[in-house]
Amino acid sequence: MGTPTTDSPTNPMDPLPTPATPAGRDGLAALLARPRTAVIGLDFDGTLAPIVADPEQARAHPGAVPALAALAPKVTSVAVITGRPAGVAVRYGGFAGVPGLEHLTVLGHYGAERWDAATGTVTAPAPHPGVAAVRAELPGLLDRVGAWQGTWIEEKGRAVAVHTRRAEDPQAAYEALREPLTDLATRHGLIVEPGRMVLELRPPGVDKGVALSEYVRKVGAESVLYAGDDLGDLPAFAAVDELRSDGVPGLLVCSGSTEVTELAERADLVVAGPEGVVDLLRRLAAQLD
Asked: Per-residue confidence of the chain (289 residues) as pLDDT tens digits?
């Protein structure tokens, strides 16, 4: 289990925090020794951007883009891997047209979409037909379950999510909706991805683990760092474990949250939310000068 860092961001020239596990220490050492062959993988919401009640208001931490712009030229690539559409993550992150981010890639919809800073374009296959069917049925389902005040639907293009964070009783609404949403998703060939007061219905066969593993292997990376904060990041953590078993050192970072203890327990290093992630990126960039 990683050790949380509770201090506020410090001078980027301060020493890097020490991972709590031998595998994590090996991963960090490999990244520092051969940065030009390393991939930095990052979730967006809760990792680069603070969690907010309305996901449409989420924006990257103010220090995220400067830290990434300092770090990206020194590694093989930085890959932001998110459940959001790639274009939305680019806008909310402020990633487009930033000097230094030419090596940035955004893998949206868990890798189904790809945006490359070098071209500024998004590539993607056709959407799964089940998403449109689920979208049409969701309002009626929410009414039948109990019309929880404050529960709302987020349109994500290739997926659709039901949020309960603004409900009168967020956890009760979340638990009441899990089974009916799972049944609805199954009928239309989709799966349910649980998260922090959100249930996302999306196509099977794509997740952050698949996206990260395919990307690392495609670019020929010799080490990888992945940072995330939610249940949807567990497949990426598993992918790093698999890469480690194949001889690719890796460092697992949890953007600390008391809501998702499973991730903290699996991490080599726990930092204090997006602010802590940005601080870690700054320090890495400074160490690689």
From this structure: 554 443 444 576 688 999 999 999 999 999 999 999 999 999 999 999 999 888 889 999 999 999 999 999 999 999 999 999 999 999 999 999 999 999 999 999 899 899 999 999 999 888 889 999 999 999 888 888 765 577 889 888 888 999 998 888 889 999 999 999 999 999 999 999 898 889 999 888 789 999 999 999 999 999 999 999 999 999 999 999 999 999 999 999 999 867 778 999 999 999 999 999 999 999 999 999 7
Q: Which two tokens stand for residue 185?
A: 């998703």
DSSP state of 111: G
What 8-state DSSP symbol labels residue 248? -
Q: Do 95 and 116 contact (CB within 8 A), yes or no?
A: no
Residue 117 identity (one-letter amino acid): A
Q: Which two tokens stand for residue 142?
A: 């929410």
Q: What is the pTM of this model?
A: 0.79
Measure the CA–CA gap between 225 and 283, rounded to whole angstroms.
14
Backbone angles phi, psi at 48, to 5 degrees: -95, -25
The residues near 279 (Cβ < 8 Å, ≥ 6 apart) are 9, 10, 12, 63, 271
